Amino acid sequence: MVERRFPRTAASLEAIYAFVREFLATKGVQPEAAFDVDLIVEELFTNMVKYGVGGQPEITIGLDWKAPALTLRLEDFGAPPFDPAQAPAVDIHRPIEERRAGGLGLHLVRRMADRLEYAYENGRSRITVVKRVEA
Amino acid sequence: MLEIRTAADGRIQLVGRFDAAEAESVDRALKAVAGPVFLDCAELDYISSAGLGVLIEAHKRLAAAGHALTLSNLVPRVRNVFGYAGLDRLLKIV
């Protein structure tokens, strides 16, 4: 797995997208495939930024490739535990007046990911996502 | 990176990627419009929940003032995100 650490801020997103692209290019994956991966990593990373009170200043992102699937791992130390796989479902059939942004990001992640796992141990949150990608 | 362009006819063009880092700037641009908002998304390459959230709130704010938010020319993969979120049926997309 290739890992890199990113400062806990939304301003890291451009560098994270570049990391994803660089990684996929080394595996010969079409850059168009990065769309879903970018969205999944943005939603999970910004969730850690927003809710990871007390977490360390950097979040670690790891990428691994075993055709045809990409494995994405985010690790956060010191933040309170939060399992995105257990977050309440968003009812997308509600009228617009009752809709809000909250929960939508994890809804999209669950829709796009093939597998979403969470583990918490010794102060470390680890989210692992597996996503099938067309090479 | 996202560029927000205002055309001569008042339409707003979003060019690039509408993510969490850009949500505030789009929110400000939309709040600065007094009447209905027409968003040209032909060159919008990417949107995440942060962008969708800004558009949901803009829709509600405009509707309360009797105006519409209209999105046009969405590229298929961006339109898919609206579909996954159930917003393709709730927002005015032409």
Mean pLDDT of chain A: 93
CATH architecture of chain B: 2-Layer Sandwich
N-to-C span of chain B: 25 Å
Task: Count every beta strand of chain A, where a strand is a DSSP E run of 2 or more residues.
Answer: 5
Q: Give the count of helical stretches of chain B.
A: 3
Quaternary form: heterodimer
Described by strand count, sense and barrel closure, the largest sheet of chain A is: 5 strands, antiparallel
Fraction in beta strands of chain B? 25-35%
The share of residues in extended strands of chain A comes to 25-35%
Q: Strand count, sense and closure of the main sheet of chain B?
A: 6 strands, mixed
Keywords for this entry:
heterodimer, A: 135 residues, alpha+beta, Heat Shock Protein 90, 5-stranded antiparallel β-sheet, 3 helices, 5 strands, 30% helix, 30% strand, globular, B: 94 residues, alpha/beta, Transcription Regulator spoIIAA, 6-stranded mixed β-sheet, 36% helix
Can you give a write-up of this model?
The complex is a heterodimer of chains A (135) and B (94). Chain A is globular. In chain A, strand 4 and strand 5 form a beta hairpin. Chain A starts with a strand and ends with a strand. A five-stranded antiparallel beta sheet of chain A has the order 1-2-3-5-4, with helices on one face. With 135 residues, chain A is of the alpha+beta class. Chain A has one domain (2-132): 2-Layer Sandwich (Heat Shock Protein 90), CATH 3.30.565. The model of chain A has no long low-confidence stretch (mean pLDDT 93). Helix content of chain A is 30%, strand content 30%. With 94 residues, chain B is of the alpha/beta class. Chain B has one domain (2-93): STAS domain (Transcription Regulator spoIIAA). Chain B is built from three helices and six strands, in the order E-E-H-E-E-H-E-H-E. Chain B has helices at 23-31, 49-64, 76-84, and strands spanning 2-6, 12-18, 37-40, 44-47, 69-72, 92-93. In chain B, strand 1 (2-6) and strand 2 form a beta hairpin. The longest helix of chain B is centred in the middle third of the chain and has 16 residues, at 49-64. The radius of gyration of chain B is 12 Å and the shape is globular. The termini of chain B are far apart. In chain B, 38% of the residues are buried. The model of chain B has no long low-confidence stretch (mean pLDDT 95). Classes of the chains: A alpha+beta (135), B alpha/beta (94). At the A-B interface, helix 1, helix 2 and helix 3 of A face helix 2 and helix 3 of B.
